[in-house]
Amino acid sequence: MAHNVFVYGTLRKGERNHHLLADSPCIAEQAWTNGQLFATDSYYPAMILGEDLVYGEVYTVTDEILAQLDELENHKGDPETDLYDRKATAIHTDSETLQAFVYLLVDKQHEVLGGPILYNDWKVHRLFNEKEDYLYFAYGSCMDDDRFKKAKIVHCFQNLIGRGVLDGYTLKFAMKGAKGGAADIVEHGGAVEGKVYHINKEGLAYLLIREGVEAGHYRPAIISCHINGELSDNVLTFIVCDKAEELKPTDIYANEILRGGTGTLSEAYLAQLKEKLKNQFNMLFD
């Protein structure tokens, strides 16, 4: 029998226990559900019920793999001795809402809880706390350096690694800005190209403000993408939190993307983007 499982900690891609899911189909890399995520006195995070959004991934597993996950999470179906309870709950993705099992720390074990996990995303929390510099995948207006110069932060975006290609995603203008749509990556298949920078904590601090993270406009996320043809893990990007129907971007914003991508993104991708702007929004660019 097949089961959907939502994972938020050490079972995620690139984490220490992901080998248990290596042969299980990944339904969604970008998934979320209601809850709260905390550090513990051990390496792993723990999720409890709550009204926040916890981010993770969804896999389809067999009975055999589910039994292995139960063993890992110390779940035997006895609330008196179990560490985690396994419950079916609603999980949201860019494509659908589905039912999946999630492992929740049982009430009697709440004394192991430490501080909250940054942005309720274990991979983001780890990256920000363990690293001083980051690979950053820019796919929208942050490919252009005009606003970097105006903010006097351009020195943080001088180390361009090259072209990034994010497979399995589509570029959409799904962020409702003050004057029009802003770019987003949506897990709907296809491929999104962008520029990959090597940035430090000063550059990160600027991006968190510019992307409106505290206001809930975008959230930091960790992706795997090809950089100059080679697959790289633990790459930082930003994804729209509350996705809207696609909105027409302003001419200024669209020009920032096209100008910023020229010389790094492929000619085919830039042509595809211009065609999208023409067909969906009647916007014409040379």
TrEMBL record:
<dbReference type="GO" id="GO:0016740">
    <property type="term" value="F:transferase activity"/>
</dbReference>
<dbReference type="InterPro" id="IPR039126">
    <property type="entry name" value="GGACT"/>
</dbReference>
<dbReference type="Pfam" id="PF06094">
    <property type="entry name" value="GGACT"/>
</dbReference>
<feature type="domain" description="Gamma-glutamylcyclotransferase AIG2-like">
    <location>
        <begin position="5"/>
        <end position="123"/>
    </location>
</feature>
<keyword id="KW-0808">Transferase</keyword>
<dbReference type="GO" id="GO:0005829">
    <property type="term" value="C:cytosol"/>
</dbReference>
<dbReference type="InterPro" id="IPR009288">
    <property type="entry name" value="AIG2-like_dom"/>
</dbReference>
<dbReference type="GO" id="GO:0061929">
    <property type="term" value="F:gamma-glutamylaminecyclotransferase activity"/>
</dbReference>
<dbReference type="InterPro" id="IPR013024">
    <property type="entry name" value="GGCT-like"/>
</dbReference>
<dbReference type="InterPro" id="IPR036568">
    <property type="entry name" value="GGCT-like_sf"/>
</dbReference>
<dbReference type="Pfam" id="PF13772">
    <property type="entry name" value="AIG2_2"/>
</dbReference>
<protein>
    <recommendedName>
        <fullName>Gamma-glutamylcyclotransferase family protein</fullName>
    </recommendedName>
</protein>
<feature type="active site" description="Proton acceptor">
    <location>
        <position position="73"/>
    </location>
</feature>
<comment type="similarity">
    <text>Belongs to the gamma-glutamylcyclotransferase family.</text>
</comment>
